[in-house]
Amino acid sequence: MLLLLLLLPTFAFAQADERPFYFGVDLSYVNEVEDCGATYRENGEQRDPFELFAAHGATLVRARLWHNPDWTEYSTLDDVKRTFTRARDAGMATLLDIHYSDTWADAGSQSIPAAWADLGDDALADAVYQYTTDVLAELAAADLVPAFVQIGNETNGGILKRGSDQNWAHDARMFNAGIRAVREFSADTGNNVLIMLHVAQPENTGWWFTQAEAAGITDFDVIAVSYYPQWSTFSIGDMGAQVTALRQQFGKDVMVVETGYGWTREDAGDSADNVLDQGLRGYPFSPEGQLQFMTELTQTLINNGALGVVYWEPAWVSTECSTRWGQGSHWENATVFDFTRDNEVLPGIDFLQDNYLHPASLPDGVIEPEYGAPLVTEGTDDVLNGVDALDVTDFYARADDSAIYTAITVGGDVFSNRGSYLLYLDTTGDDQGADVDVGRRPITVAEPYAPEYRLDIKITEERGSVRASYTLNMWSDGEWTEIGFTGGAATMTGSESVIEVLLPLASIGNPANVNLALVSTGRGRANSASDILGTDLVLADDETPLVLDAFFALSLSSNN
């Protein structure tokens, strides 16, 4: 596995094999739980947790900072210095998460520190600037300058709020004051501290950063996202595709700075209720499910050009100490330590060092010369109901030794109408796959084709943001079953649109050859075919039977 940590990224669109990727862990709780008696073990032997995570591949440690909490001795600047010292000594870079609050700041709460409560906006912005400057100066004096600084934590509804309404004029002043402090610190000290703005859940990123940009919040480097399936409608594949969409729209790097998954539904017998109790279909709450979720998420982030991933909070184990809401940990079932075996490390930690595919190129919605001629080209105006956004026209495909790349051209702006595109893959050339598309309108597949896989691409709209969603299905026991999509994807819209997909060969069984077919379906519904690539058939209506016999061969034998 290639880990490039010698240089921070200076631009958003490097080649995939030149990009650093940070494997991160948020260890904000470690000092506290160790002071409360916690220990961590590997093969029964006690280990320092920072050294343990570094040995398993972690390259970045995140830590939160509260302003002046009167209810805890932790997550103060002194505590952060302790955490960053341990991270530095273990050879890991650091990410400072400034909450600008005396307590938890998140999507539901952004309370102003007590010391700043009576300040007007002018004085409050000055306080943000001076505080950020002072924090960085103190860290620099201890040789603990972080690689990244978050200006706020999960600031969906704003920052340093005085009410419930979003106030972009106020927010812009506060964000820009913190940003200016980091930029001036970097210039004065010769450091290159990258600035993050952080939003909870990927479905909130499009509208939030569009409005932030309009408000004049632009001088930052990284879009930081929390992604927890329990509170998100996005699949792992959707999260990855959103990375590409954000990179393209805003020209920023993207990092998932909070994610996690449970390895059990049980607790350690403490009174602190576990927060994470809902999973994602296909990923059981088990040690194996936790590892599968994290490795597949990490792979799809890599395949979409993300800058890194940070697990929250893998070492918050239960102790006799209490939070504000109960004794013990609210996250023990989502750590990577087994509380039933004296905090023995779990397999989930090894998402940090899996044998990840680092693709030679990333999907960008541009049809590069490497594709060569399209597999098939057809004219326009052969689409049901005349919807240009569903009128597929060209289909390109190529492969290297690890992935298939496909590019679909569409005769209009795909975001102008909600719709779907179904890519069928026959990987065996026999009759062992699907012969009818169960659950949709009857789509009968003509011999000799019987696809084993189907990739569904859906164009949807949420809160004013359009996005493309990707689902990979496998034919099993007479029906389509969803499996994890860890590929990359990009959509480029205009008078003509391009949908480009990277599909790892391993996810479809590493075949020697594949036959591909493509169907578009109408307006957000999956039961009406609109266009079948490779035929000029125009369906009369939604009920017209469809026989799918236009498959196109792509040879992969030289790549396996």
Number of strands: 26
Q: What percent strand?
A: 25-35%
Instruction: Measure the end-to-end span.
Output: 20 Å
Supply Rg.
Answer: 25 Å
What topology, given as strand order, has the largest sheet?
A: 1-4-5-6-7-8-9-10
Arithmetic mean pLDDT: 91
Low-confidence stretches: 1-17
SS field, number of helical segments:
8
Q: Biggest sheet: strands, sense, closure?
A: 8 strands, parallel, barrel
Q: Report the principal-axis shape.
A: globular
Structural class computed from helices and strand pairing: alpha/beta
Could you estimate the helical fraction of the residues in percent? 10-25%
Describe this structure in words.
The protein has 560 residues and is of the alpha/beta class. Helices cover 20% and strands 26% of the residues. It contains 8 helices and 26 strands. The chain has helices at residues 30-35, 49-55, 77-89, 121-141, 168-189, 205-214, 236-250, 287-303, and strands spanning 22-26, 40-42, 45-47, 60-65, 93-98, 148-151, 194-200, 222-226, 253-259, 308-311, 337-338, 344-345, 376-377, 392-399, 403-410, 419-426, 443-445, 453-462, 465-476, 479-483, 488-492, 497-504, 513-521, 529-532, 546-548, 552-555. The strands form 6 sheets. An 8-stranded parallel barrel has the order 1-4-5-6-7-8-9-10, surrounded by 5 helices. Helix 7 links the parallel strand 8 and strand 9 (253-259). The longest helix has 22 residues, at 168-189. The chain is globular and about 70 Å long. Mean pLDDT is 91; it is low at 1-17.
